[in-house]
Amino acid sequence: MKIIAHRGDSVNHIENTIPAFESALNVGTKLIECDIQEVNGEFYVFHDHTLERLFDISGRFAEQNNSEIKKLLLPNNEPVPTLAQLCECIGTKATLNLEIKHLINISGFVAELNKLRAQYSVNVVLSSFSHPLLMKVRTLMRGSRD
After folding, report:
1. 25, pLDDT greater than 50
2. Which of 10, 41, 43, 51 would be 83's cystine partner, CB 3.0–4.6 Å?
3. Is residue 85 helix, strand or coil?
């Protein structure tokens, strides 16, 4: 049986934050699920399509710009982490199940993911409710192999 930390240790920490992921690792979790969204070529770990629930402001996450997102603080005063920060945190300690929520630049995502996988030796599983998106990512991943 495999235990998956959904959005990290989201029982004891704000979901999809570095403290939630570190806590999940500290209790021995070997598989962590989180959500990935793209904003202007940057890839963030964030679940909701809107900002209301976690920030109590209106607007869609993907419609913000990167400087606005970097200023947002979650209820635990943590910033929204980037995919790079997540990969640095996880490294080889667990497998990441990255649920792709919103991507525009699919080839940019594949390039970033390949770079991060090489840099941090992170093991990744990709998931999405969009089968066509997963097929595009898969095709690009295969084409980018050395």
Report:
1. yes
2. 43
3. helix
- Residue type for position 84: A
- The CA dihedral of 133, 136, 138, 141, to the nearest 10 degrees, is -120
Contact 33/6 with Cβ under 8 angstroms?
Answer: yes
pLDDT at 36: 96
Using CA atoms, how far apart are residues 95 and 53, in angstroms rounded to an integer? Answer: 28
Q: How many CB atoms lie within 10 A of CB 146?
A: 4
pLDDT band at 3 (very low <50, low <70, confident <90, very high): confident
Beta bridge partner(s), residue 4 = 31
pLDDT computed for residue 146 by the predictor: 41
pTM attached to this predicted model:
0.93
**Averaged pLDDT score across all residues of the chain:** 94
Of 5, 13, 12, 18, whose CA–CA distance to 80 is shortest?
18
Tokens encoding 88: 């640095």
Residue keyed to tokens 């920490």: 13
